[in-house]
What we know:
The structure is a single chain. The chain has helices spanning 2-22, 37-51, 65-73, 85-92, 101-109, 152-165, 183-188, 204-210, 222-225, 228-234, 283-295, 297-301, 317-320, 332-340, and strands at 25-30, 55-60, 79-83, 112-128, 143-145, 174-176, 194-199, 215-218, 239-245, 257-260, 265-278, 329-330. By secondary structure, the chain is α/β, with parallel strands linked by helices. The radius of gyration is 23 Å and the shape is globular.
Amino acid sequence: MKSQLKKLTLVAACAMAAVGAQAQVNLTAETSSKGSIPHYVVAHLAEVASAAKVANLQVAEGQTLTNSLLNIAEGKSDVSAAPLILPFMMSKGVGPYSALGAEKGAAMAGNLRALYPYNSGGYFMLAFDSKGFKGWGDLKGKTVYNGPPRGAALTNARQAMTINTGMTDGKEYKGLQANWDALNAMLVDGSADAYVLPLTMPHARISVMQAAGKVALYSTPKAAMESEVGKKMLALPGNIPIELKKEDTGYANDPNVRLVSEDGYMRGLGTAFAEVVNKDMSFDLAKALTAAHIKTLNALKAKAPALKNIGLAEMDPAKSSFCGMSPLKYHPGAVAAWKEAGYTIPACAQ
């Protein structure tokens, strides 16, 4: 009887050890609305982290990322998507973080670390082809939808107009603002003459417009991107250059979409993102999460056509908005994962 009891005890101990070895930490994650690039990326991390038995991520979608980033900094949440302009603004205690003040804002921003980079597309000009616009300069005196009433999207859209035309909202053109949930109707009802929007390619917003007529999609000319104004705008934290070959946009052979570019490339002012965690996340956990992301990059790109064009694994600081005025650096565990996968992380981002 004693011998049998010992055997049962040993079996139970082995079973418990096996369960312990497979135990996963539970994490909270925050991201934007379903269907957005940040949502795709965070949802993928939740999937692959679970499959790799690294962590279970409880994902809260449709969040305001300014608040999500503060939750990360305060240790109230574990993982969040973040446009890279936000850590900079937090570090200065300005914009949505003005209530923190400069000193506390800098301290909070110092708690942030990145796992991996990506982007949410570039700002391009959209109009119905029937408008007959030859380029951005034709928007003088026109009504241009340029985003919600406040926030980073509106700022970036106005910056894109400045790069392309030097024109100011409310002076040379009339900016039209409305929340994103009203945009689909506005794309087809003639509310605006043109739209300056963040787009990954291909994009559902272009499909919405196609239902009402042929669409023209305008690139930022190379000369404008390389101008003094363009360089100044691209040097701002969170801003990056987007450049895609026409054949990579998904519209090169679409008879209902006319791509307007002088040299076969579609260029635009882009918005850099990163997956952000608190600096106190353990080295091993940050490394394991990042490694799961790196190992499944091809699977992530296959989830939607636009995901191959969002700068996944882009480590060039100029194309990912790290270094320079950006205070955000990679978590040491993430650095180790990227290096083990054969990537070079700039010293200024470590």
